[in-house]
């Protein structure tokens, strides 16, 4: 299984809502990533988890809260978002200290109203 | 700061022709480079990668060339097909110091359109 899955595919939320994005992989990868991608732009790294521990936080606002409950799952909890947070949120995974190749999921298209 | 950039934001190629997508990088410490293809509504998909101890690597219909002297990377796609229409991103690793964090920095992307 070389697939990274993400749910939901689309999400519309108000600025006062709390929602979560989910990501799952069963490739045995111990590094997992959250990226944000605006239209016509490259993916921007948000967070990196290595062996279920947060290793990189790219100065992301606290309204985004990542969680890695186990080696296969990665969540992104959303609270009090702004309309400018509307974007495609991509999850990726990779091996640790063996390869830089990251496997991406299809993304969650988030719209904040 | 260091950045990865692309020379052309858009490229149109006749079906069946070869295409070349270019990428300039500025972090001389980078020793791993990767090309991704992103189709509309999908996540980036791995195409091919290359390490700095190589200057050329070939895959199926794709070739990546690395010129470390001028810090330039290119992706050649042979005999283009309609399914090759997508945005192509190059990415670099920023050097061995990032190993263990596996951080990639993406370039701005080139939209390739194949004309039937």
Tally of helical runs of chain A: 0
Helix content of chain B: under 10%
Find the structural class of chain A using helix and strand composition. Answer: mainly beta
Major sheet of chain B: size, sense and barrel closure? 6 strands, mixed
Q: Helices and strands of chain A, in N-to-C order?
A: EEEEEEEEEEE
Task: Please state the structural category of chain B.
Answer: mainly beta
How many runs of DSSP E, i.e. beta strands of chain B?
Answer: 11
Largest interface: A-B, 27 and 22 residues
Q: What is the residue-mean pLDDT of chain A, rounded to a whole number?
A: 94
Low-confidence stretches of chain B: none
Q: Enumerate how many helices of chain B there are, as a single number.
A: 0
Helix/strand layout:
The complex is a heterodimer of chains A (113) and B (116).
Chain A: E1 4-7, E2 10-13, E3 18-25, E4 31-37, E5 44-50, E6 53-57, E7 64-70, E8 73-79, E9 87-94, E10 103-104, E11 108-112
Parallel strand pairs in A: 2-11
Antiparallel strand pairs in A: 1-3, 3-8, 4-5, 4-9, 5-6, 7-8, 9-10, 9-11
Chain B: E1 4-5, E2 10-14, E3 19-25, E4 32-38, E5 45-51, E6 56-58, E7 62-67, E8 72-77, E9 86-92, E10 105-106, E11 110-115
What does this structure look like?
The complex is a heterodimer of chains A (113) and B (116). Chain A has 113 residues and is mostly beta strands. Chain A has strands spanning 4-7, 10-13, 18-25, 31-37, 44-50, 53-57, 64-70, 73-79, 87-94, 103-104, 108-112. Helices cover 0% and strands 57% of the residues of chain A. In chain A, strands 2, 4, 5, 6, 9, 10 and 11 form a 7-stranded mixed beta sheet that branches. In chain A, a hairpin with a 2-residue loop joins strand 5 (44-50) and strand 6 (53-57). Chain A starts with a strand and ends with a strand. In chain A, 35% of the residues are buried. The mean pLDDT of chain A is 94. Chain B has 116 residues and is an all-beta fold. Helix content of chain B is 0%, strand content 50%. At the A-B interface, strand 5, strand 9 and strand 10 of A face strand 4 and strand 5 of B.
